[in-house]
Amino acid sequence: MGDMTNGNTFDFVRHEQDAISQYLRVRPYYEELASVVGRVIEECLSKREITVHSVQHRAKDPMSFGRKAATPSDRKPENPKYENPIEEITDLAGVRVITNVLQTLSDVDELLHQEFEIVERSDKGKTLLDEEKFGYRSVHYLVKLSKNRSNLAEYERYASGIVEVQVRTILQHAWAEIEHDIQYKSSYSIPSEIRRRFMSLAGMLEVADREFEAIQNADRELSNIVEDQVKVGDLSGLELTSRSLKSFLDQRLGPDGRMSDWSYEWQTRMLKKLGFSDLEQIENAIDPYDDNKLSKIADGTRVGQIGRFDRVLLAALGEKFIERHPWNDEDWFLEGRRHVLDKFIEKGIPVGTYDPLSI
């Protein structure tokens, strides 16, 4: 696209302008292509129940494309690196998958290999190390729609399109976002003090990524242990958390799909305000009571899981439940719960005085 002027000087300015002009004519296609691949990835993530921070897509910015098109060749700096930019530059359509932890990177890698045709896969972290440049790990893929998908009418026009997919963690993404502001790209040119700080920061980010992953794994393992212990009735020493409470109530009172995570979080805060610290205390408090019977007395019918749990706690703690409850300064709450206590007494239900703080 460019030409030679003054004998043997390549016209990089004209080459850049011609590249931008040509790209603008096809950019709408690459916007659609990026959107299509991004949507397919989101659908596949959802189907596999893989949780990520975000999936972003874009067509390359025209000015950025022009600058890249005018990049001098490494071997022959007097010539452009891309003689035919529109054909040779492969990141015209891009998708970025940002994960929360390192472990998810392998899940996304497997997804991409199963759902797309992989044209190329490159580990940018390894490349940076080989070239003595600063940066942080990021895996890049060049993908095409699989034949099964591109044979469908809605995807047929995108069959030959290539999309660059970047996969990185949130911390890797944070580094990449500020990398454009880092003036020193090579360890040969950076002052030793700045180099030391760069290396320390890169190390800290990698350690943080690994620690986040370890915490997630530990949390998952602990949740499994809690569920197993609850199932067999071994509640000794089981800490009161929103997850452990849900496992306990599902086992003790039956599951209730209408309850949200927030419901169990609020119940956990309420129980701690009442004085409870573990599941064994809760079991000891409510064990003498029939939640269905108390619910029918108080409400005239069998209410949901949290409602029945409220009734058995009220029967077990009596006035202590009312006095320590977060809503103990609300008249409607005081009148309503004392009215329920009166119903229990009227029906011969023994109202307890269980106090977890005395255990």
Describe the model.
There is one protein chain. The chain has 359 residues and is α+β, with helices and mostly antiparallel strands. The chain has two domains: 179 residues, 2-Layer Sandwich (Beta Polymerase, domain 2), CATH 3.30.460.10; 126 residues, no CATH class. The strands form two sheets. Strands 3-4-7-6-5 form a five-stranded mixed sheet. A two-stranded antiparallel ribbon has the order 1-2. A hairpin with a 3-residue loop joins strand 1 and strand 2. About 1% of the residues have low confidence.
How do the strands and helices of this protein lay out in sequence?
Blueprint: E1 4-5, E2 9-10, H1 12-47, E3 54-59, H2 62-69, H3 85-88, E4 93-99, H4 103-115, E5 116-123, H5 124-130, E6 139-145, H6 147-150, E7 163-169, H7 170-179, H8 192-232, H9 242-253, H10 261-274, H11 279-286, H12 291-299, H13 305-317, H14 319-324, H15 331-346
Parallel strand pairs: 4-7
Antiparallel strand pairs: 1-2, 3-4, 5-6, 6-7
Helix pairs in contact: 1-2, 8-9, 9-10, 12-13
